[in-house]
C-alpha cells in the first residue's frame, strides 16, 4: 500500500472505529445481509480443528470468534489490520469472548509476514480499498499450504449497472475511505489466477461476491 493511501485509510478508520459496527449495520436498510454474506464466506474456508487462519483486514474483529470456533482450541487465528483504533475494538471483542488462541497484528497487508502452515486466508470487504490488492493475494498464496483456501468477500459493479450512474455511488463509498475508482479493482481475478481450483458465488443482485481459490499443490 502506498504511504499516502495507508495514511488516508488510517485516518478514516480511526474516526470510524468506535461506531464502525453500528454504522455498517445501516446497510441492512438497503437490503444487504452482511452477516449472511460473511457466514457464507467463512464456510468456504472449510477449516478444521488445529488449522491456522488469517483474517486479512480484520477490522473490529467480527469474524474472529467464528474463526476461533472453526479451528478449535488447538487452532490459531490471526487478525491483521492497518489501523490501531480498529484493532483496539477487535482486542475488546477477543477479550470479552475469552479467545486465547487469537492474536492481533497491526500491519500493512502488502508487507505482512505470514506464519507457517496457513490453511486459510479470508478478506471481508477490505481488498477493494487497497490499490495493491493483487500483491496481497499473491503473497497469500505463497503462504498457504497446498489445498489451503483464499477467500475474498467484497463488492463489485454488476454488469447491469450503467456506467453513467457510477458517479452516484460516490457518497456510499466515501465513508469507507474509497472512491469510484474502486469499480476498476477486481480482486477476484488474481484469486482465480493463482488457484488450482476456483469458484465464484454472488449475492445481492451481483453487487456482492465471494471468490474462493484453492492453493496449488494438493
UniProtKB/TrEMBL annotation:
<dbReference type="InterPro" id="IPR029063">
    <property type="entry name" value="SAM-dependent_MTases_sf"/>
</dbReference>
<keyword id="KW-0808">Transferase</keyword>
<dbReference type="GO" id="GO:0032259">
    <property type="term" value="P:methylation"/>
</dbReference>
<protein>
    <submittedName>
        <fullName>Methyltransferase domain-containing protein</fullName>
    </submittedName>
</protein>
<dbReference type="InterPro" id="IPR041698">
    <property type="entry name" value="Methyltransf_25"/>
</dbReference>
<dbReference type="Pfam" id="PF13649">
    <property type="entry name" value="Methyltransf_25"/>
</dbReference>
<feature type="domain" description="Methyltransferase">
    <location>
        <begin position="53"/>
        <end position="148"/>
    </location>
</feature>
<keyword id="KW-0489">Methyltransferase</keyword>
<dbReference type="GO" id="GO:0008168">
    <property type="term" value="F:methyltransferase activity"/>
</dbReference>
